[in-house]
């Protein structure tokens, strides 16, 4: 028996940060993650049925991954072992397996092994552990701020259920802060604290869904109140105090944010919302994104989503890319902002994008079309077989008037009735938006003229031929 155990435990609790002391002690105290723990949701069902298998909890810092793992162990009455995947070795894993086996044999309790930073779990560690995990001797719960689909090994993914924890809402952060102020045992309920709503709003906004940051700010505000503040004098925490107690918000920008923010910017521009598009562009730049990446995405979008509805868009995007390369940050943000605003308000069309993709699908999947005789290079090498080996394209044209190329510029309206493909296809279908509306009218006019001339109302020869200019 250790006579000093209780004293040491008391001392440890005394120096624990507020965020540690205020960890939820039950699922009812747990804030957020209603999409996982709400009535009828998957994790809630797994807990009710006591069928927790290997889990990977991923999400931003401060969303409660470690706390949730502890509560799962508590709810299922399982032994809880916590390790860091970057520090644990094969030897320690074997010890954990042996301890789990003894615990199951002696007490009937199963063991949960919680591995923080599970994306650092190596293949050799998996080889030792995963066999016992599959047999149910050990339940593996991992936590990571990375996307496990990219950061974790496939063997681990295939044996686990993945749950994404979302940042807490401002209302949830506010609830966590107020609970800490009211809790006399673990928080500051024994002090006379006047916590203003404006201060809670500041912390809820600047903590970016991270409950730990909000509680740390509260702790700084209380402990820095000075010796004159106490149970009698009271502590006032207003907006100015709240701002002084939390560091400038650092934008969390990981791999998921890279793809998600870019997707949000592109979809906002496509949806003609310059305000949303500007915010997502600023989010990426403030998070340290390479401005050349934004310029590249804007250049692609100019063709993919605007196209001929505003042909100037691609020129604006190209100029932006060139200037970003030459200027660099922070001034390049101005050029990028100008481009984002222009593209967002430009008329939209993906007709060119659809047209080239449909044509390429036909090239890949359909029968390869031969180039019509009147479109071939008259000076190309003799082609063997068929209707006479060694006959050039020019000789074939001369012998067959129907195979002669008609020079479009020789026509009064610049349009011939010739077929340029050999089959009936319609790839480019311009919209009625922006400049493309004019192109749509021109396309209909050209098709009408071509059809009229094909029907026999054209001049017999339709204009002179010019073999020298045909290539």
Topology:
Blueprint: H1 5-15, H2 18-21, H3 34-37, H4 42-48, E1 55-58, H5 65-76, E2 79-84, H6 90-107, E3 111-116, H7 123-135, E4 138-144, H8 148-151, H9 154-158, E5 161-164, H10 170-182, E6 193-195, H11 197-206, H12 211-223, E7 235-237, H13 239-244, H14 255-270, H15 274-286, H16 291-306, H17 312-327, H18 332-345, H19 351-365, H20 393-399, H21 436-457
Parallel strand pairs: 1-4, 1-5, 2-3, 3-4, 6-7
Helix pairs in contact: 6-7, 10-11, 10-12, 14-15, 15-18, 16-17, 16-18, 17-18
Describe the protein.
The protein is of the alpha/beta class and 471 residues long. It has 21 helices and seven strands. It has helices at residues 5-15, 18-21, 34-37, 42-48, 65-76, 90-107, 123-135, 148-151, 154-158, 170-182, 197-206, 211-223, 239-244, 255-270, 274-286, 291-306, 312-327, 332-345, 351-365, 393-399, 436-457; strands at 55-58, 79-84, 111-116, 138-144, 161-164, 193-195, 235-237. The strands form two sheets. A five-stranded parallel beta sheet has the order 2-3-4-1-5, with helices on both faces. A two-stranded parallel sheet has the order 6-7. Helix 14 runs antiparallel to helix 15 and helix 15 runs antiparallel to helix 18 (332-345). The longest helix is centred in the C-terminal third of the chain and has 22 residues, at 436-457. Mean pLDDT is 83; it is low at 457-471.
End-to-end separation: 99 Å
Helix content: 40-55%
Round the mean pLDDT to the nearest integer and report it.
Answer: 83
Q: Reading side by side through the largest sheet, how are the strands ordered?
A: 2-3-4-1-5
